[in-house]
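// run 5 | inverse folding | seed 20
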């Protein structure tokens, strides 16, 4: 009896083969073997592509989960008592903690030079725009957690046209300019971050990290008009992290 079971196990092979044998005996359809083998082959072929796109899709999902959280939080008025300074401070800190945990677990993300960001007062932060600016999201989380203050951000116009993003952009003080609004934010004592290269730099730069600023010098004029210092920021490995699968490694951000 044991020998028969062993022989059946040998003939069965993989789990998929066993399922095919069972279905064939139950239904009497021998064509199932060919069809399922073909599906098994397609799964084997497309598995690398599925793995490659897992992280970007997860980031998009995480953004929409953040938006969903903000909508739920907006309706939980009883939480307002826990945050006496500003109604949205609790939401920002909670989301910052989630994003900081994601940064640590997924990338081993670290920030060097965060002490150069003042605890109060205006500063203009200029940073390199990676293929996906997830490093900047992580930086925002670090600033909110360790400095206890938000950082205003300048983003491309298309971001404001994405469905469902309005509340997220408002809570995290994201603006699309113009220069007058940037100067106003700095004069009001806020941190402000700008990536002069923007989407063009994200799409066309490569592993050499060439900057694509073209004639964009408005950020310098903003700093001059607001009379604030400029702090450059760069994330090591951000380009490799989203260029090849084997490039996922530790991210180190340098604030100079």
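// decoded
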């Amino acid at each position: 009896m044991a020998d028969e079971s062993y022989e059946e196990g040998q003939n069965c092979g993989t789990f998929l083969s066993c399922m095919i044998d069972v279905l064939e005996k139950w239904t009497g359809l021998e064509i199932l073997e060919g069809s399922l083998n073909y599906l098994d082959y397609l799964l084997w072929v497309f598995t690398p592509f599925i793995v490659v796109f897992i992280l970007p899709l997860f980031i998009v999902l995480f953004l929409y989960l953040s938006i969903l959280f903000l909508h739920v939080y907006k309706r939980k008025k009883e939480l307002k008592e826990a945050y006496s300074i500003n109604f949205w401070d609790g939401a920002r800190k909670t989301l910052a903690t989630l994003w900081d945990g994601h940064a640590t677990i997924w990338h081993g993300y670290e920030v060097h030079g965060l002490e150069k960001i003042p605890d109060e007062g205006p500063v203009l932060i200029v940073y390199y725009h990676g293929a996906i600016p997830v490093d900047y999201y992580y930086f925002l989380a670090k600033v909110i957690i360790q400095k206890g203050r938000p950082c205003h951000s300048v983003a491309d116009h298309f971001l404001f046209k994405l469905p469902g993003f309005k509340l997220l952009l408002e809570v995290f003080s994201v603006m699309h300019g113009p220069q007058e609004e940037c100067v106003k934010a700095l004069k009001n004592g806020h941190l402000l971050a700008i990536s002069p290269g923007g989407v063009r730099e994200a799409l066309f730069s490569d592993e050499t990290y060439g900057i694509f600023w073209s004639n964009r010098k408005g950020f310098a004029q903003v700093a001059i008009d607001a009379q604030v210092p400029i702090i450059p920021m760069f994330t090591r490995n951000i380009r490799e992290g989203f260029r090849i699968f084997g490039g996922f490694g530790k991210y180190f951000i340098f604030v100079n």
